[in-house]
């Protein structure tokens, strides 16, 4: 994505020369929700948040969520933790204790559901 943005900027500068042209681009943050099913999002909670890297994902409504991939990204968009869940009941325990203190983006992706939110780790 960054390479595409840089290429677009290069093309714009090349076409306009080095005049005082300003280009403003909005790049979505890794935490920004896109194409989500709101009814399922309300049924997902991360507890506790903030945490020390060990937390639970609570799924209020488990219908239609049999397989899920949990991904945690640093704020610069790098994947720092991932876990695939095949089947589960009740709260899902996550141990990402190797993560340093900071703000992260967490994504839970199921067959028909995508949840994106912020995760705060304090040690």
What does this structure look like?
By secondary structure, the chain is an alpha+beta fold. The chain has a single domain (30-121), classed as Immunoglobulin-like (Sandwich). 15% of the residues lie in helices and 37% in strands. The protein is built from 2 helices and 7 strands, in the order H-H-E-E-E-E-E-E-E. It has helices at residues 2-16, 38-41, and strands at 44-47, 54-59, 68-74, 79-85, 92-95, 102-110, 114-121. The protein has a 4-stranded antiparallel beta sheet, with no helix packed on it. A hairpin with a 4-residue loop joins strand 3 (68-74) and strand 4. The longest helix has 15 residues, at 2-16.
Question: How many DSSP helices?
Answer: 2
Helicity level, as a percent range? 10-25%
Stretches with pLDDT under 50, minimum 5 residues: none
Can you write the helix and strand succession as a string? Answer: HHEEEEEEE
CATH architecture: Sandwich
Structural class: alpha+beta
Task: Tag the structure with descriptive keywords.
37% strand, alpha+beta, Immunoglobulin-like, 2 helices, 123 residues, 3-stranded antiparallel β-sheet, 15% helix, globular, 4-stranded antiparallel β-sheet
Secondary structure layout:
Blueprint: H1 2-16, H2 38-41, E1 44-47, E2 54-59, E3 68-74, E4 79-85, E5 92-95, E6 102-110, E7 114-121
